[in-house]
Design a protein that fits this description.
The complex is a heterodimer of chains A (90) and B (358). With 90 residues, chain A is α+β, with helices and mostly antiparallel strands. Chain A has 2 helices and 5 strands, in the order E-E-H-H-E-E-E. Chain A has a 5-stranded mixed β-sheet with strand order 2-1-5-3-4, covered by helices on one side. The longest helix of chain A has 11 residues. The longest helix of chain B is centred in the middle third of the chain and has 9 residues. In chain B, strand 13 and strand 14 form a beta hairpin. In chain B, strands 3-2-1-28 form a 4-stranded antiparallel β-sheet, with no helix packed on it. Chain B is an all-beta fold and 358 residues long. Classes of the chains: A alpha+beta (90), B mainly beta (358). The interface between A and B is medium-sized, with 18 and 14 residues.
Chain lengths: 90, 358
């Protein structure tokens, strides 16, 4: 299961743990899974078309996601994912 | 639940500030939603709830609502563009309650040009398709923002199916059947920024703000990119009431609730130079439907003031005498004598996006 951690800024809006574990094949699956656990969280990470928001950064195993349009980047059972705010957002 | 003369909601870049008049003095409270950019905040006078549109730098646009007086806001469902549009809601620019006899109906004007409606008090939202089709077909362009945007929503107090919207840039659109069909209502307006052979169009105009006169709902005023206009026939035609240099370019307009001939604007220098005139902050007002205009500056800074109010940051209270505006530098000014004199409510707020009596 992928291990996911979040920027503390998201904890202002959702009651998130330090780390959560989720089964997901891709980052898009992961976002859907997160939205299932914390309804509305997905819309903070992506827009209504499933595109990564411009000023959100998702890191998978030390690399920023490449497919910002569909979040098709694959996850492994041991992936470590960080969902952060990009500093470009101010 | 009606809007009062002694409560103001101020949407700032760093939260929602309230101003209250108590024991004869105005005091500031808040911020609610601290640290969050409030694009627009208003009170729905039908049920007293407060609505705020939030423009997070990172997390996108959201809607929040407070149903009590304890200042607690809860996020409500967000208007989202359907998949086939391939669009993203960039900005919830204006919020507007529906007709008094339609509780639960509420509208949101957005960039990139869509109007969203809820009829279940914000539980779900629907993009108005006929209007969106016009936006796509006629390639509405941005004005003040990258994409086209709806910044004004005006519901006819006599008929909840009769709604005007102001779009930058398309102009005024009108529906008489609750949004099933729309027509442009821009006769008499100009668009000097368009090529000479493209100015005789039904759309493409840039109304900066649209305001209806409650005492005569067939009268509407608009501050436009190319002058100040008034309509006396429900937007069938527009009459220019500009008086250069001061009554021409600006964003907000306020109309006396009990006198359709009386209005206020805040002059800006020009399209190309969006500052005050000579560092002077002042209003222009008319009492004769725009035939003549008078300057009002007592109590406002007359040198070194380069800030100005955005389109949603000037408002008039139901009494027709209390006016307030907030500026890009976080100054708030209030008048309790119909603009004859002004005093400072604050010089220290963050940038102000909206100011509305509540």
């Amino acid at each position: 299961m992928a291990r996911v951690s979040f920027t503390p800024h998201l904890r202002r809006f959702f009651d998130l743990p330090d780390v959560c574990e989720l089964e997901a094949a891709t980052v898009a699956d992961l976002v859907r899974g997160l939205d299932g656990r914390w309804p509305g969280l997905g819309f903070y990470i992506t827009d209504e078309q499933g595109r990564l928001r411009q000023h959100v950064a998702v890191w998978v195993d030390g690399t920023q996601v490449e497919d910002e349009e569909r979040l098709g980047d694959a996850l492994t059972a041991d992936s470590v994912v960080h969902i952060l705010q990009a500093l470009s957002g101010g | 639940m009606a809007t009062t003369n002694d409560r103001i909601l101020i949407g700032t870049r760093k939260g929602l500030i309230e101003a209250h008049k108590a024991n004869g003095a105005w005091v500031l409270q808040g911020p609610a939603l601290q640290g969050q950019p409030i694009a627009y905040a208003m009170r729905d006078e039908r049920d007293g709830s407060l609505w705020a549109s939030i423009d997070h730098g990172h997390w996108g646009v959201k809607l929040s609502r407070s149903k009590g007086d304890d200042g607690t806001f809860e996020e409500v469902a967000a208007p989202k563009y359907p998949e086939d549009t391939e669009k993203t809601a960039k900005y919830y620019w204006v919020l507007q309650g529906g007709h008094a006899e339609r509780p639960g109906t509420f509208y949101v004007g957005t960039e990139p040009g869509g109007l969203f409606t809820t009829t279940d008090d914000g539980s779900s939202w629907e993009l108005n398709r006929p209007l969106w089709d016009l936006c796509v077909e006629h390639k509405w362009m941005g004005g003040g923002r990258d994409g086209a945007g709806i910044h004004s929503i005006v519901v006819d107090p006599r008929d909840g199916d009769h709604i005007y919207i102001g779009v930058s840039c398309a102009g005024v659109c009108e529906t008489k059947d609750g949004g099933a069909t729309w027509a442009y209502a821009n006769k008499g307006l100009r668009m000097d920024y368009a090529p000479p052979d493209q100015q005789d169009m039904e759309y493409g105009f840039d109304p900066h703000f649209l305001a209806l006169a409650p005492s005569d709902p067939d009268v509407l005023w608009q501050a436009n990119h190319c002058g100040v206009y008034r309509s006396k026939d429900g937007c069938a035609t527009w009459d220019e009431v500009s008086d250069k240099p001061y009554v021409y370019f600006g964003f907000p307009v306020a109309v006396d609730p009990s006198n359709a001939d009386r209005a206020w604007i805040v002059p800006m220098h020009s399209d190309g130079n969006r500052t005050t005139f000579d560092g002077r902050l002042f209003l222009m007002t008319t009492e004769d439907a725009g035939a003549t205009w008078t300057e009002q500056s007592a109590g406002l800074p007359q040198s070194g003031a380069w800030d100005f109010p955005y389109r949603h940051s000037l408002d008039i209270a139901p009494d027709g005498r209390t006016l307030a505006f907030g500026t890009t530098s976080g100054n708030v000014y209030i008048s309790e004598d119909a603009g004859a004199s002004w005093s400072v409510l604050s010089n220290n707020l963050p940038l102000i996006y909206s100011l509305r009596f509540a």
